[in-house]
């Protein structure tokens, strides 16, 4: 029989000098908020790394069971990543997750949607596929593929103090077949608008389009802050979660 103390000797030898090694039960519990990432489709890994960097404990959500009602499994927040909102809708319905998610969001679960995730959190969607189901929650109208179908990808340095992006250190925003927000209800905070919209041929009369919003515990961005190593949007979401947890 293998002697476990022999097998683990190198670790024990190193840890023996550390007082906690003698009292493993006293090791600090994980105090990070648990944030689920809806992983039916879309860029899950990037959000996981960004959430970790922002001080959260990311977990993957693939089924209604992963939404966690058991103590210890409870989610403190949820990220709905980018991808394709029509596919996401179909899968949410197929996996019986639409109703439980709507219920959790309605009950105040903090959620952050980027790109397709923003579309999922909108109360009204222009350019939706017939019969497409949404989670809703934010009193806004979102237009799918608003930057133009031919514009696959568009980037801009955003100045958005509410997201920690001041003039000296703007936020590089990457839009991929992205939606924008056409209009918001009175309870919705506008966190970022495009500046160079007109130059890119996508602007309205004022040149700016709404691309980041917050209503209560819900946050949404048209762009993908999980690409790259700038985690300011995830920092904002993690602090929204921490305040409520
Ligand atoms: N165009 C996609 C949709 O409508 C969103 C694109 C994205 O999430 N990058 O769902």
TrEMBL record:
Q: Which gene encodes it?
A: pdxT
Listed binding positions for L-glutamine are 83-85, 144, 176-177
Q: Which residues form the active site?
A: 115, 224, 226
Gene Ontology cellular component?
A: cytosol; glutaminase complex
Subunit info here reads:
In the presence of PdxS, forms a dodecamer of heterodimers. Only shows activity in the heterodimer.
Q: Identify the CDD domains for this entry.
A: GATase1_PB (cd01749)
- What are the GO BP annotations of this UniProt entry? L-glutamine catabolic process; pyridoxal phosphate biosynthetic process; pyridoxine metabolic process
- What role is this protein assigned? Catalyzes the hydrolysis of glutamine to glutamate and ammonia as part of the biosynthesis of pyridoxal 5'-phosphate. The resulting ammonia molecule is channeled to the active site of PdxS.
Instruction: Report keywords, A-Z.
Output: Glutamine amidotransferase, Hydrolase, Lyase, Pyridoxal phosphate
GO molecular function per UniProt: glutaminase activity; pyridoxal 5'-phosphate synthase (glutamine hydrolysing) activity
Reaction catalysed by this enzyme: aldehydo-D-ribose 5-phosphate + D-glyceraldehyde 3-phosphate + L-glutamine = pyridoxal 5'-phosphate + L-glutamate + phosphate + 3 H2O + H(+); L-glutamine + H2O = L-glutamate + NH4(+)
**Into which family does the record put it?**
Belongs to the glutaminase PdxT/SNO family.
Q: Which pathway is this protein engaged in?
A: Cofactor biosynthesis; pyridoxal 5'-phosphate biosynthesis
Q: What is this protein called?
A: Pyridoxal 5'-phosphate synthase subunit PdxT
InterPro entries registered for this protein in UniProt: Class_I_gatase-like (IPR029062), PdxT/SNO (IPR002161), PdxT/SNO_CS (IPR021196)
EC number assigned by the record? 4.3.3.6, 3.5.1.2
